[in-house]
Write a structure and sequence with these properties.
The chain is mainly α and 306 residues long. The chain is built from ten helices and four strands. It has one domain (2-303). The strands form two sheets. It has a two-stranded antiparallel ribbon with strand order 1-2. A two-stranded antiparallel ribbon has the order 3-4. The longest helix has 51 residues, at 204-254.
């Protein structure tokens, strides 16, 4: 993403900035949206080249038409999944293969530390008894989201988690794990009580209105978990990229009209953008952690209603 901004800065310095601050501002705004939005093509800034992704024929299911053509975010999502799998498989072989019984070194040691912390302090601590079976799911969520977040900081890369459809799909998977895990652990009768809420001790004539009032509230609370997980991740990752691109865009706005004010002010936006990018590394880790932690908390709340 920063490489995208740098190439456009080079174009502006080469003379394209003479179009005027208002025109360059409009151009930059359109390219900000191009950077964070999904598309069926890649743009190579500075080379004025567009690479179109293959278009697949849509699949028709009755009146519904499903387009399975790859997009920019889908490509980077697949890259993140591949890198995540290769990294964790490599670490597993270093820690459980020939190196079994020995302390891992280097990157394998770092990843194992993450795994142990997430297992003990996130999954097992929040899910409680029987949480061992959910540890692989929580770990997969964390590392997959982390790779997607970090790839957005690679020059010309894209953040798949900046797409609400991606974060929404992850949230739906988390909701399925939460509710199915709770149903299997509690059984049908006890699980139904997590939706149809009736406090103990109420007389029969009080239970009916209480159930009518609280059941929709409890059902909405379960669905709200999807939005809490999806929108938090989507908004944080998109906002960080927009802030960086907006700071770099100040250079073009300063180039309004003739003069060399742009040559004077450009270091400040660049330094601020670099500082925000360094903070984005921390945010990428933090958002992956929060998603995994909240999923664990929600699983624990359903499995142990008390």
């Amino acid at each position: 993403m920063m490489g995208y901004a740098v190439f456009w800065l080079m174009l502006a310095q080469a003379g394209h900035g003479s179009q005027g601050g208002q025109d360059m501002g409009a151009v930059w705004n359109s390219h900000m949206m191009e950077e964070v939005a999904d598309a069926h093509h890649f743009i190579i800034p500075g080379l004025n080249r567009v690479i179109d992704l293959p278009q697949l024929p849509p699949i028709h299911i009755g009146a519904l038409s499903v387009d399975l053509s790859p997009t920019k975010h889908v490509i980077w999502l697949m890259i993140a999944a591949t890198l995540c799998a290769l990294t964790l498989i490599w670490t597993a072989r270093r820690t459980h293969g020939k190196g079994a019984g020995k302390a891992p070194k280097g990157m394998a040691n770092v990843i194992e530390a993450f795994v142990i912390y997430l297992r003990d302090e996130v999954a097992l601590r929040n899910i409680g008894h029987g949480g061992e079976r959910f540890v692989p799911f929580v770990l997969t969520l964390f590392f997959f989201i982390l790779f997607m977040n970090l790839l957005g900081l690679v020059p010309f890369g894209a953040t798949a988690t900046g797409n609400i459809m991606v974060t929404g799909a992850l949230a739906v998977l988390a909701l399925v794990a939460i509710e199915v895990g709770g149903f299997l652990h509690l059984g049908p009768r006890a699980y139904l009580k997590t939706i149809v809420y009736v406090p103990e001790g109420l007389p029969w004539f009080g239970k009916i209105p209480m159930a009518l009032i609280m059941t929709p509230v409890e059902a909405i609370a379960k669905l709200a978990r999807i939005f809490a997980l999806a929108i938090r991740l989507f908004a944080n990752m998109t906002a960080g990229h927009l802030v960086i691109l907006s700071l770099v865009g100040l250079i073009f706005m300063a180039g309004a009209g003739a003069g060399s004010i742009k040559d004077v002010v450009w270091p400040a936006p660049v330094l601020m953008a670099v500082a925000i990018m360094l903070m984005e590394i921390f945010i990428a880790l933090l958002q992956a952690y929060i998603f995994a932690m909240l999923t664990s908390v929600f699983i624990g709340l359903v499995r142990h209603p008390h």
